Backbone:
């Protein structure tokens, strides 16, 4: 199998990495974090000019026809730069829901604004008691004479404080945790009945608690049948997070190796001590294994069949979650006291990796999901099981 990028993908990788290297160093990131929204409108405009905001969408809908590989390239570069802008929330996650659930008319209305950077999306899914269960939804949608309205509350809405349009999962029928009866709805961020409280997260990004009290809404696609589209968009988002984690892990490794080469103790660089060299090699192995799993998740991310997509995505998320936690701990420990300071970047990489591990399910929850699904082969593929055991 050919794992090489094509010419367009190589150009994308070079241009995004150059942008992050030249325009998004750690000092500038610190200044960006102090801006009112916690991210840079100037950088957001640059992303739009480069076509990054419209990249995952079809050309017929106003996008640039990219796919999971292009998203992987961008997210890995953003992981290296610890990018604060709402690219993941708006383009990857919100955009994925639009691609999989919206009608053709809705796509034509939404996607051009997303691509230009004038419309930012946020996905309001998590509720205080739902944990990692995508079907655990208590928020309700009601059809009235004037259309749909939403009642309920959502937590940890990534960049929900600045979203122009909020995509809300809500029940139109059934009880909590029922797969059927879940709808997706578009709600204007400034609509009456919408109350938002934004706050910074531990990794420097932004999130919001959002309450909906009779908020007017528009159904995204067919109400009551949205759970499959939500699961598909979330799986694609997890694959993108895996790529971001690889970028952050690689950057943390480079910082650590550089520190081992320059920090001196007992009249020699500490990197000359064999025990520390072994630990650095172990970190390198973790990065390369994570890269392989991220590539595997990217390869299956576009698969519409959840039976083949979901186990692989869960396995990749579980592996990268555990590997990134171990690598982050090693990076901080090998730096010593400086690794614990806010002024040095390695601790910020560890924070972001920790948050990625927790998003959409931590490593333990995904291992349990892989077991429930019967492993990477599939729960009902008895013939494949026998061939493997042989």
Residues:
């Amino acid at each position: 199998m050919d794992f090489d990028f094509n010419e367009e993908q190589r150009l994308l990788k070079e241009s995004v990495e150059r942008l992050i290297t030249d325009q998004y160093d750690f000092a500038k990131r610190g200044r960006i974090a102090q801006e009112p929204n916690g991210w840079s409108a100037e950088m957001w405009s640059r992303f739009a000019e480069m076509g990054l905001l419209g990249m995952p969408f079809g050309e017929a809908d106003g996008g640039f026809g990219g796919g999971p590989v292009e998203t992987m390239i961008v997210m890995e570069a953003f992981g290296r730069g610890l990018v604060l802008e709402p690219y993941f929330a708006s383009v990857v996650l919100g955009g994925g829901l639009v691609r999989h659930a919206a009608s053709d008319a809705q796509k034509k209305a939404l996607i051009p604004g997303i691509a230009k950077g004038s419309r930012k999306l946020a996905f309001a899914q998590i509720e205080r008691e739902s944990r990692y269960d995508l079907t655990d939804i208590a928020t309700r949608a009601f059809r009235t004479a004037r259309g749909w309205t939403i009642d309920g509350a959502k937590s940890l809405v990534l960049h929900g404080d600045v979203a122009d349009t909020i995509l809300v999962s809500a029940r139109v029928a059934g009880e909590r945790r029922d797969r059927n009866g879940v709808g997706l709805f578009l709600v204007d961020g400034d609509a009456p009945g919408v109350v938002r409280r934004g706050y910074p997260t531990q990794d420097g990004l932004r999130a919001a608690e959002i309450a909906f009290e009779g908020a007017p809404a528009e159904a995204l696609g067919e109400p009551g049948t949205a759970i499959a589209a939500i699961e598909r968009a979330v799986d694609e988002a997890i694959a993108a997070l895996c790529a971001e984690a690889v970028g952050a892990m690689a950057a943390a490794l480079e910082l650590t190796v550089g520190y081992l080469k320059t920090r001196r103790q007992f009249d020699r660089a500490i990197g000359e001590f064999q025990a520390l060299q072994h630990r650095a090699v172990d970190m390198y192995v973790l990065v390369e294994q994570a890269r392989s799993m991220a590539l595997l998740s990217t390869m299956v991310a576009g698969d519409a069949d959840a039976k083949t997509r979901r186990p692989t995505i869960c396995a990749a998320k579980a592996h990268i979650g555990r590997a990134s936690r171990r690598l982050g701990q090693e990076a901080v420990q090998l730096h010593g006291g400086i690794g614990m300071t806010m002024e040095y970047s390695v601790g910020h990489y560890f924070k972001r990796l920790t948050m990625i591990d927790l998003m959409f399910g931590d490593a333990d929850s995904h291992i349990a999901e892989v077991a429930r699904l019967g492993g990477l082969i599939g729960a009902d593929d008895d013939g494949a099981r026998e061939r493997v055991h042989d």
Notes: The radius of gyration is 21 Å. The domain at 228-389 is CATH 1.20.140.10 (Butyryl-CoA Dehydrogenase, subunit A; domain 3). Confidence is low (pLDDT under 50) at residues 378-390.
